[in-house]
Specification:
69% of the residues lie in helices and 0% in strands. It is mainly alpha-helical and 212 residues long.
Length: 212
């Protein structure tokens, strides 16, 4: 984010504080992408954001608190984009495919945010790992809503939804760790087949993907 102009500018304290907060969250993600969680300090974050250490502590009590805020903000943005894309399909399967396409496009376009959510969320300690699990759970209803039962069969157990969401996150994280963040869209067919097969079968999943 752009820094505010120096000197008198007539901006309200609330606007300045919000701008500083957003710059700090963006700077944290960039520092994590370059140095990892343990290698990132409050001074680094503030310097990258153009925010003094004293102003940092007016916003957050610690690096951990800044991380949690950045993590929650990123997860919410991803969830809203996925939720919006779910409604773009003509049925459940094409909606899931549209949501996954939107997801990989967003993650590929914002590598620092992707690193924060999919990698650093697993490295930053127990409290953050719990937040990571809560974030995954928040996507489960988006997958489950409207999901069909296999022809002539019972609906998959509820644990299937959690396993699919967790599996998608794991597949994406592996690609990110391999340095392939900007190529995530190339793996959409693989991820989509994994997500759709438990509900509609492998053959139908491949058909839906091929028709995209």
């Amino acid at each position: 984010m752009e820094r505010l102009p120096r000197g008198r500018h007539g901006l309200s304290r609330e606007f300045i504080a919000q701008n500083q907060r957003e710059r700090l969250l963006a700077a944290l993600a960039e520092c994590l992408d370059e140095r990892g969680y343990d290698g990132t300090t409050v001074s680094m974050i503030g310097s990258r954001a153009g925010v003094s250490k004293s102003d940092f502590y007016k916003q957050f009590e610690s690096k951990d608190a800044c991380f949690l805020a950045a993590y929650d903000d990123s997860v919410e943005r991803i969830r809203e984009r996925v939720r919006a894309a779910c409604g773009e399909g003509r049925d459940w399967a094409t909606g899931v495919l549209a949501a996954l396409a939107a997801l990989v496009d967003l993650l590929a376009a914002e590598p620092a945010q992707t690193q924060l959510v999919l990698v650093e969320g697993l490295r930053a300690g127990r409290g953050v790992y719990d937040r990571y699990q809560e974030g995954l759970q928040s996507f489960v209803p988006l997958l489950r809503d409207g999901a069909p039962s296999p022809a002539g069969g019972e609906p998959p157990p509820a644990a299937t939804d959690e396993a699919v969401v967790g599996g998608i996150a794991s597949l994406l994280a592996r690609r990110v760790l391999a340095g392939e963040t900007e190529k995530l869209a190339d793996f959409l067919p693989e991820i989509a087949e994994f997500a759709l097969t438990p509900y509609i079968g492998a053959a139908e999943a491949r058909r839906v993907i091929a028709e995209r």
